[in-house]
Write a structure and sequence with these properties.
Elements lengths: L5 E8 L10 E3 L9 H7 L5 E4 L1 E4 L3 E10 L4 E8 L5 E4 L22 E11 L14 E13 L2 E14 L10 E4 L6 H8 L5 E5 L9 E4 L12 E4 L8 E4 L1 E4 L11 E5 L6 E3 L1 H9 L6 E2 L7 E4 H4 L6 E6 L5 E6 L5 E5 L2 E7 L1 E3 L5 E2 L1 H4 L2 E6 L4 E6 L1
Parallel strand pairs: 6-11, 7-10, 17-26, 18-25
Antiparallel strand pairs: 1-2, 1-8, 3-13, 4-5, 5-6, 5-9, 7-11, 8-9, 9-10, 12-13, 12-27, 14-28, 15-17, 16-21, 19-20, 20-24, 21-22, 23-24, 27-28
Length: 385
């Protein structure tokens, strides 16, 4: 279901009386960052680790794990998505479009409270590697509250959304929903922090061939990486996990376009990497002139499958640590090929999608590093695995 930068979240008052007309409203979501000293004073909860499964379809697409919702608890599987901030999952209010997912039944939960609003949300990146076109990743939702738990840590009256309809693109998902894990503590994460959980989480997003992926909520699993963690401060005060990058290099080379400063969003719910068209073209020019736009899918690029395996395509993204030293996150050449296009299996899609106005990296970077998402200190940390 998701990749996840929401383009819009319009909530409509759901009046069930006959003839009532829904009046659209724009609801501004608010959140807060828990002060570090306050977190330390209240610390009462220990970190928990949640095993993650890998949704693999030609390449590693999404990592997802289980939560429970309701009383008695019902298990729902979700992508823990750093590119969004809310919790939404399939429900029995959703018909055939949700038949591939396990559906939460709110009528069987004694603690569920209907929020009385309907909503729609459209995502700017999708579950797979294909570029999003128009509103082909769209959910229709109904608000509510219920007890939600992660790894045995629970919070009552947590805001959530029940999926009541979804576009066909979500139909392949083996998981039921999305748990937003933005840079501003919201929902269950904010509730657990208020109970004393340290205000951070860590992701170990391994490739399918390695397995044993996991998320640690409230802590860091030091057995999963070697060497030190390198931290960088977030570039903005928004809910997005954003770092400033002064330079991109491809196969050790750069250009004027690639040396420009840019803010890059880290989104665990996105598979590919996205850059503006000019940046994308400059990167591919340093890999092969045979990589060209794929007309059938605007924003995607491809090359003959019999050529791609021999191409060197090492991408280094430079950042600045909190100590002021530059460091690189590296995407190896093995990530360049994300599989053949369904409409033309002789052409293989390449890793970078063009998306003007957005610079974003996802699983293709994160699965090569142990990552620490420190909400309380507004920073991101990385260590080699």
């Amino acid at each position: 279901m998701l990749s996840l930068l929401a383009l819009c979240l319009l909530l409509v008052s759901a009046q069930d009386s006959v003839g009532a007309q829904a009046v659209p409203q724009t609801i501004h979501l608010q959140s807060r960052v828990a002060p570090v000293e306050a977190t330390l004073r209240r610390r009462a909860l220990n970190p928990v680790t949640v095993p993650l499964a890998d949704f693999f379809l030609g390449t590693d697409l999404q990592w997802f794990g289980n939560m429970t919702v309701g009383t008695p608890p019902q298990t729902v599987s979700v992508v823990f998505d750093t590119g969004s901030s809310t919790l939404e999952f399939a429900s029995t209010l959703c018909g055939a479009s949700c038949d591939n997912q396990v559906k939460f039944d709110s009528t069987k939960s004694s603690t569920f409270v209907d929020g009385g609003t309907t909503s729609s949300i459209t995502f700017s990146t999708g579950v797979g590697v294909d570029p999003v076109v128009g509103a082909n990743y769209r959910l229709t939702l109904r608000s509510g509250k219920d007890t939600v738990a992660i790894g045995g840590l629970s919070a009552p009256a947590t805001s959530l959304f029940l999926i009541t309809n979804q576009t066909a693109k979500f139909g392949i998902d083996p998981f039921s929903g999305i748990q937003g894990m933005s840079a501003r503590a919201q929902g269950i994460f904010a509730a657990l922090v208020s109970q004393g959980l340290p205000s951070l989480f860590s992701l170990f997003l391994t490739p399918l061939s390695v397995g044993k992926a996991e998320m640690t909520v409230g802590g860091i699993d030091t057995t999963k990486f070697t060497g030190p963690l390198t931290f960088a401060s977030l570039a903005s005060a928004s809910a997005a996990w954003t770092l400033n990058s002064p330079q991109l290099t491809v196969n050790g080379k750069t250009t004027t376009v690639l040396k420009a400063s840019r803010n890059i969003i880290f989104d665990s719910g996105t598979s590919n990497i996205l850059f503006p068209t000019a940046t994308t073209n400059a990167m591919y020019a340093l890999i092969s002139p045979d990589i060209v736009p794929f007309a059938a899918e605007p924003g995607a690029y491809g090359i003959a499958c019999n050529k791609i395996s021999t191409l060197p395509a090492v991408i280094d993204i430079t950042f600045t640590s909190q100590s002021g030293s530059p460091f690189n996150l590296t995407i190896p050449s093995s990530e360049l090929n994300v599989g053949p296009f369904a409409s033309n299996p002789a052409i293989c899609q390449t890793l970078i999608n063009a998306f003007d106005g957005l610079s974003l990296v996802g699983g293709s970077v994160l699965k090569h590093y142990y990552s620490v998402w420190d909400v309380g200190n507004q920073r991101l940390g990385f260590a080699a695995i």
